[in-house]
Design brief:
binds SN-glycerol-3-phosphate, eight-stranded parallel beta barrel, 54% helix, 11 helices
């Protein structure tokens, strides 16, 4: 199971990298905007800065929605660093772009995926990753996990190479549930990622071990 961090914040990326368990980074236009990164030059530099911190796949999303624009932007993004994965939305043009990128050896992440049908088309087009948005599905009163479970089963039926990347993670439970159904990657904000370690019995147990050790030294 791979862990990506879902942020464009450099400090958070550094903190997750320092944990020693990070395999990659995902960003999106909202996350870039949140960091105040605007303008093509600054955005591209930011991706390159992230690539210097983490030695793994870094998703960089196209803004264009037309095929020609997606191809142009995607090629430019892919040329920034060998670890860049071009993030493309699950639209008709997006699927065509993924097919073309895949034929040219450019890695892709099909994003904004909310159904198994979209995930099948992404895999058929040769996407490197497919990103179902578990939290946003839950927000609509559907069961995000159920859809991800179905995707895992369908991908296994056909031995699709595309990796399932659980996205829109909101809490520790989402991460564990993704692991339970066997997704390949989870991309999480820093808080749930760090939250995996939290357990009061660990804290209480450690406190007791240290107190006993101290007593025994007297
Ligand atoms: O990777 C996609 C993710 O950033 C979306 O998360 O919390 O905005 O639904 P969220």
């Amino acid at each position: 199971m791979k862990f990506f961090i879902d942020t464009a914040n450099i400090e958070e990326i550094k903190e997750a990298e320092a944990m020693g368990i990070l395999d990659g980074v995902t960003t999106n236009p909202s996350l870039m905007a949140k960091e105040g990164i605007t303008g093509e030059e600054n955005v591209n530099k930011h991706y390159q800065d992230i690539c210097k911190i983490v030695d793994g796949h870094i998703s960089a999303e196209v803004i264009a929605t037309d095929l020609e624009g997606m191809l142009k932007e995607g090629k430019k993004l892919a040329s920034l660093h060998p670890n860049i994965v071009v993030k493309v939305p699950a639209t008709a043009n997006g699927i065509k772009a993924i097919k073309k990128f895949s034929a040219e050896g450019i890695k892709t992440n099909c994003t904004l995926v909310f159904s198994t049908g979209q995930a099948i088309l992404a895999a058929k087009a040769g996407a490197t990753y497919v990103s179902p948005f578990i939290g946003r599905i839950d927000d609509m009163n559907y069961d995000g996990l159920e859809i991800i479970e179905q995707m895992v089963q369908v991908y296994a039926n056909y031995n699709f190479d595309t990796e399932i990347l659980g996205a829109s993670i909101r809490n520790v439970k989402h991460i564990i549930e993704c692991a339970e159904v066997g997704v390949d990657v989870v991309t999480s904000p820093l808080k749930p990622l760090k939250g995996l370690l939290n357990h009061p019995l660990t804290d209480i147990g450690l406190e007791k071990f240290l107190a006993d050790h101290k007593k025994a030294q007297k």
